[in-house]
Amino acid sequence: MGSRPDSDAFPWQLKILIAGGFGVGKTTFVGSASEIEPLSTEEHLTTASLDTDSLAGVERKSTTTVAMDFGRITFPEDNVVLYLFGTPGQDRFWFMWDELSRGTVGAIVLADTRRLQDCFGAIEFFEQRGIYFLVAVNEFDNAMYYTPDEVRNALALHESVPLLLCDARDTQSATRTLISLLEYVLTTSAPQPTP
Amino acid sequence: MRPYIVTNGRTHPSATLELLSMVRSTGRVACDRLGPEHAQTLRLCHSPTTVAEVAGHLRQPAVVVKILLSDLIGTGAVTTHDPTATAEVTTDLIEAVLNGLKTRL
Ligand SMILES: Nc1nc2c(ncn2[C@@H]2O[C@H](COP(=O)(O)OP(=O)(O)OP(=O)(O)O)[C@@H](O)[C@H]2O)c(=O)[nH]1
Ligand SMILES: [Mg+2]
Predict the structure, then answer these.
(1) How many separate domains does chain B show?
(2) I need a surface site. Which of A40, A107, A135, A147 has the fewest CB within 10 A?
(3) ipTM attached to this prediction
(4) How do residues A67-78 score in pLDDT, each as one tens digit?
(5) Where along chain A do its domains lie?
(6) For testing the chain B interface, which of A13, A40, A61, A183 should be mutated: the one with the most B CBs within 10 Å?
(7) Ligand 1: distance of its center to the CA of A3 in Å?
(8) Beta-strand runs (E) in chain A
(9) Is B84 touching A (CB cutoff 8 A)?
(10) Does residue A155 contact residue B64 with C-beta atoms inside 8 Å?
(11) Which of A44, A72, A192 sits opposite B90 (nearest CB)?
(12) Cβ of A41 and B102 within 8 Å?
């Protein structure tokens, strides 16, 4: 890999987002794949809201707190670190995703077949921004079984987007899902000359 | 740690730090010359790490940790690396991670 004069001791970073609806298994996935116990940090967000009670309808600022969990996997031989970020599951935190998605190599959208519609928002977000993603159906024990084609149809997924099954609780399964995403990115993206 | 006290009532960090900004102690400032919060933060930067990770270990909101780290950067105790400089995702980088992940299976 090329050298970076200003940062010899700093590792290279790669970032993957783990997205999907509320309670779909994002934190579980990050924890299974990560080599460290998943950590969590809060980001304070200031949002302007219209104060409907006041006569003038003045804008008031309110602060919300969003918890984000993340994990990492280090590859010391190459001085590379892979970071996994679980995105906030609630729709009202979409704007957080913009910051998180900057510089990301791609995203894994987790889906629960009992509530497929919960991941529509995430799929739309990545489609619109041209961010590589795949959909991984997290198989919950008491969920009805659907064939991958049924799920693909229900999600109106483009045929090029990989769809696979995973168990977010299982390290091997989570790791294989990450591998699938990176293989998809490599085969889909135009080869870039390295500096 | 009580966030407000730690940060002296400040709400904005002076250095531009993102969750994935890398930080590392320079070794130029000894921990015992610092207050407990700053010393604890500095110890977590012994080897290169991210703002997010320091925040996770300190169990403090990211903004508080960014302020503590800004202080340490200001005194030369910590050096930082802007993640936007590494934002370009090259094929080499993806392949390195891909091969590394395969060895974990
Ligand atoms: N049976 C089964 N349970 C799972 C699986 N993945 C996650 N769970 C459980 O589902 C619940 C929710 O998982 P989380 O990982 O917290 O989901 P999340 O997407 O992070 O949730 P939010 O952050 O609240 O949106 C937890 O109780 C998990 O133990 C799975 O593959 N199979
Ligand atoms: Mg979660």
Answers:
(1) 1
(2) A147
(3) 0.83
(4) 788 999 999 999
(5) 12-189
(6) A13
(7) 40
(8) 12-20, 39-50, 59-75, 80-86, 106-111, 133-138, 163-166
(9) yes
(10) no
(11) A192
(12) no
